[in-house]
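quick one: EPZ bound model?
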Amino acid sequence: MDRIRISGGNELRGTIPISGAKNAALPLMIASLLTSDTLTLENVPHLADVEQLLRILGNHGVDVAVNGRRERQEEGYSRTINFTCRTIVDTTAPYDLVSKMRASFWVIGPLLAREGRARVSLPGGCAIGTRPVDLFLDGLQALGAILDVDGGYVTATAPKGGLVGGHYSFPKVSVGATHVMMMAATLANGTTVIENAAREPEIVDLAKCLIAMGAKISGAGTKTITVEGVTSLSGARHRVLPDRIETGTYAMAVAMTGGDVLLEGTDGALLESALDTLRLAGAEITQTETGLRVVRNGNGIQPVDITTEPFPGFPTDLQAQFMALMTRSSGVSHITETIFENRFMHVQELARLGARISLSGQMARVEGVGRLTGAPVMATDLRASVSLVIAGLAAEGETMVNRVYHLDRGFERLEEKLTRCGAVVERVSE
Ligand code: EPZ
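yep, here:
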């Protein structure tokens, strides 16, 4: 199993290209199930989660062609991929595929909309919380779906003549359930109104792509999305938006180590709340024509309290990274997690590096320390793992991050991007 060895202490200086967003690419790829034409996606990141979804889509009959031309010269960076699903050959998404990645459950929407039926394994437990699927089921029921949960599978059937437009107000904001309802509603008969919808930039990106495919959607990015059903969708060409979580992660890394880095090809408007917080912590951040420039000013790291919230609030996917930064602040900060009930696994690992953090329910109290010291660490989810990398970059001595496959799920060429900016980071394969 691969590990990442970090020798901490260096500032970061240089340019880091920001990849296409994992959490936009996944639903966009799933949208290819809605049409028999070719959907071309540019800027698809080269990540383990994307590869896993390619296998799942292949199982349903999607033909995948990766374009020869690399967007950047180096092998392995974001690619342009054609997805063509002439016919859906299987409406079942089996346990052994779905259990590896929660987002694969989202195929239920397009399969049901296009074929009138879907049998999809429940995604199962996840390290960051129970993550149920009740909101998906309630939303699809509002479109007329008949549902049955049995033997670990959800079987969904559309009424004769297909799904029907409906009205649903989410009792809690869910990114995945909003994606699924929006996709399902595109081919329903009549108009669907989705209230208390998620407003994440990835929702807007999916809506843009669906509109390019012929869908009639308005309001994406606001709390109310309206979808007027059409009889069929066509192919389209769409570029995946930049990854705001990768952007925020590297911005926090620079705030941690000091230095001066251009995050190339990204847009600060995608993560304003996180950038505002980082500014309060002491980073100087400016949007340039080519990306975001992040510089750590000379005043050290200031303590800042945060609470995670659905977009446009501070994203849960940057909570662990921000906590890593706060371990070196000059005071006490409080970090409250409101989205997932078990997203503090990094706390005990950060403590192995010398951090002083105490937990009380959903709130962490982080007392900044003068120094962190390297140690072997591991984490059980993607963002927790990268928080350990950030801490390792500032720790004295060597930090070995185990279970690197978590990082490979969501960070394209992490060690290469950091090394180019002066960090001492290497992958150790065994
Ligand atoms: C998406 O997950 C992201 N994943 C997550 O990123 C992200 O943390 C999360 O949104 C919140 O921003 C992708 O986009 C692929 P939710 P999703 O449904 O859609 C509860 C990462 O590291 N809920 O918005 O699964 C749920 O338990 C990942 O890249 C229900 O109760 O998240 C959670 O508490 C991890 N019932 C809250 O809603 C449901 O039916 C928000 O979850 C669905 C969700």
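Residues 290 and 326 are 29 Å apart (CA to CA).
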